[in-house]
């Protein structure tokens, strides 16, 4: 519930909820961040390297300020993604920004760097909306930090940036007025980008953590706004943020079953018993076995939502049982199909198709390529693409591939 | 040594080292990746959401292909950063790309997505150079994977992307002809971006991991090329990639000493005894105590390389001893200065400046802001910036701040 609770709290926060004390603290934190960024840009090479020689060639329309840059060099603007990164670096490069002493988090950097950059790109954003979003992001960072400190820190993570990408995502989601479900997806996409380890303290990379956290959170919120999916148990799930960044996970889950005998790793990867979409079905050995029996092949055509929800397929999946066996190699399987009249059909797959010992032939690989590419751009262009990509190793300029199909 | 060994191996790899078997496998892996990306772009919403509605507004000059996009929509190009991300998503969205069975890594995705995007942006890149870089990146991923598998995987990390950002950095560094020290820095910057947890399997975010790993590795190599520093023990250090992503770190290191008595956390953060640069000195309680005594203040002016290397300061640092004491709160310190005639001066700092109980006053915070900003853009503009940023909470459009100073 942690992910949805955080998302719901942030979605429902209003400016009227903010006490005078909170507003005063937020205001100080924000302008102190700006001072650090403006001063930091001029004081250290890190933000200038990031902006001038590295990211300028990739910047899109210059909607957003690079704090400090218009005081010292010509380029004072960049796209919001680049601005979030560079401002984040600049704001932390002097290690002179605000500190939440209980967790050693510097909360303003990731949140303000993402927020100001996107606020400029979005057009009119009121100070009240901005400060509400800022508070939401900072609160998210510090609450997350409190929930994992000190273990998370003692492992070696740089807690400002590991919580910072999530705080930035919450703040930007708030500014974009995302609802709770979309904010939860943003938290998910942000949390899977775990930025920052302590080995880099004392190098330019420490400040990079803050910029990349800001940028990662911003990207997460924008993706979520546009319908990109993640997981609404991102924080609390066994293989989610809180556990993965703190402790070893447990071993593979238990499973019952009988007709398939496979290596336990198969269930770690593909243990979904009741997939509901084509995407989920790729992680279901039950689905793979069912469609193998029903269709005789396992290509993208058998991993569509339609096929996954087909009642015959659903029915066949419930008949698949899986037994784990350490003795079975990871690329092998024992399959036993029992028919209603008592007949049994046994098959031992020594090496799965695509393994080192049973590779796709040149012809099979071409078939796979052509099937995918023809669907996308038609057969004639697919043939030319095949020629182009198979001959890349002999080209003088691989960049010209795009003109060849 | 792992970081430098990997960097050195990659730097010295030549096309002549690649056997026919390696080249054949690399060629198949590369063109299969292209097929997956071209087909994947058309088959699933994830790469289209990432490109069309999310990243198009931020794309810089369109130097690099979006594989599959020119078959279905108008926009077929983007800047190399965006292309690496979107092609990485598209190449994995069908979970149909190549697999290194021993580690369950899909090696081509992060490496090829970064390489093709930057190769197009760079101008002529020969197929031989391209394939050499591709092999370097894939080998880096799989060797790293073997060194941490299965523990790393069992914790819950998505091993394709956690190793993928490093593989992509190695590959792009190779293409850029970086030397061993610069390649090591690139490995560092890539390794601190730990992308991907298993909770997202079955959602759009799984494929995002591959794209973001590609983009993170590309960015790391470009930053390193331009002199951005990280750590050349990034992989093997106690708080580096191999350990942090696998197990809890140990507790704070032991220290001797007497004149400073502080909470043990102080040494976790600031335990550097002999800093050689201003940046390192910020993580040295020894330096902070020395300059506090010598200068009476601790502002950015006392954290320059010059001050850090000043012989009087160096000498004073060696006279500082630190004792850990769990009973001392994290924001407090006991300082005892003993003079050569036997006189002792004792000071108990109850709450450090900047802590909740001893905050900077409005005036002190303004002084801090002005000091930083004046250095960057002069006093008159700094005053205007102070006005603008302190009043952000009342603005109708925070985006207009940039025009106000």
TrEMBL record, chains A, B:
Domain MmgE/PrpD N-terminal, first and last residues per copy:
5-245
What's one GO MF term for it? Answer: lyase activity
Q: Which family does it belong to?
A: Belongs to the PrpD family.
> Which Pfam families would you find in this protein's record?
MmgE_PrpD_N (PF03972)
InterPro entries hit by this protein: MmgE/PrpD_sf, MmgE/PrpD_sf_1, MmgE/PrpD_sf_2, MmgE_PrpD, MmgE_PrpD_N
Source domain of life is: Eukaryota
Name of protein: 2-methylcitrate dehydratase PrpD
């Amino acid at each position: 519930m942690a992910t949805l609770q955080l998302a719901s709290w942030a979605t429902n926060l209003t400016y009227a909820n903010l006490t005078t004390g909170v507003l005063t603290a937020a205001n100080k934190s924000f302008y102190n961040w700006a001072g650090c960024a403006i001063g930091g840009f001029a004081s250290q090479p890190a933000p200038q390297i990031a902006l001038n020689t590295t990211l300028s060639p990739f910047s899109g329309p210059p909607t957003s300020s690079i704090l400090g840059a218009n005081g010292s060099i010509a380029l004072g603007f960049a796209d919001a993604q680049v601005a979030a990164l560079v401002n984040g670096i600049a704001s932390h490069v002097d290690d002179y920004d605000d500190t939440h002493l209980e967790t050693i988090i510097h909360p303003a950097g990731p949140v303000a760097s993402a927020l100001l950059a996107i606020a400029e790109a979005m057009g009119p954003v009121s100070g009240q909306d901005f400060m509400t979003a800022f508070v939401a992001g900072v609160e998210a960072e510090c609450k997350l930090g409190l929930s994992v400190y000190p273990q998370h820190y003692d492992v070696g993570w740089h807690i400002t940036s590991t919580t910072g990408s999530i705080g930035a995502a919450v703040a930007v989601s708030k500014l974009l007025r995302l609802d709770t479900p979309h904010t939860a997806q943003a938290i998910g996409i942000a949390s899977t980008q775990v930025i920052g380890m302590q080995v880099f303290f004392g190098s330019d990379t420490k400040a990079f953590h803050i910029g990349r956290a800001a940028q990662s959170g911003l990207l997460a919120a924008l993706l979520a706004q546009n319908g990109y999916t993640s997981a609404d148990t991102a924080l609390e799930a066994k293989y989610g943020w809180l556990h993965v960044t703190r402790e070893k996970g447990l071993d593979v889950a238990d499973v019952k079953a009988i007709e398939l005998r496979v290596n336990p790793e198969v269930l770690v990867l593909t243990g979904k018993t009741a997939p509901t979409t084509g995407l989920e079905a790729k992680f279901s050995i039950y689905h793979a076995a069912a469609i193998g029996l029903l269709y005789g092949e396992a290509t993208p055509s058998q991993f569509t939502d339609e096929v996954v929800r087909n009642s015959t397929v659903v029915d066949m999946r419930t008949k698949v049982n899986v037994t784990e066996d350490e003795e079975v190699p990871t690329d092998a399987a024992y399959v036993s199909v029992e028919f209603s009249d008592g007949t049994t059909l046994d098959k031992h797959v020594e090496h799965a198709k695509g393994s080192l010992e049973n590779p796709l032939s040149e012809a099979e690989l071409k078939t796979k390529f052509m099937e995918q590419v023809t669907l996308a751009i038609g057969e004639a262009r697919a043939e030319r693409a095949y020629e182009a990509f198979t001959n890349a190793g002999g080209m003088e300029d691989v960049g010209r591939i795009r003109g060849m199909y």
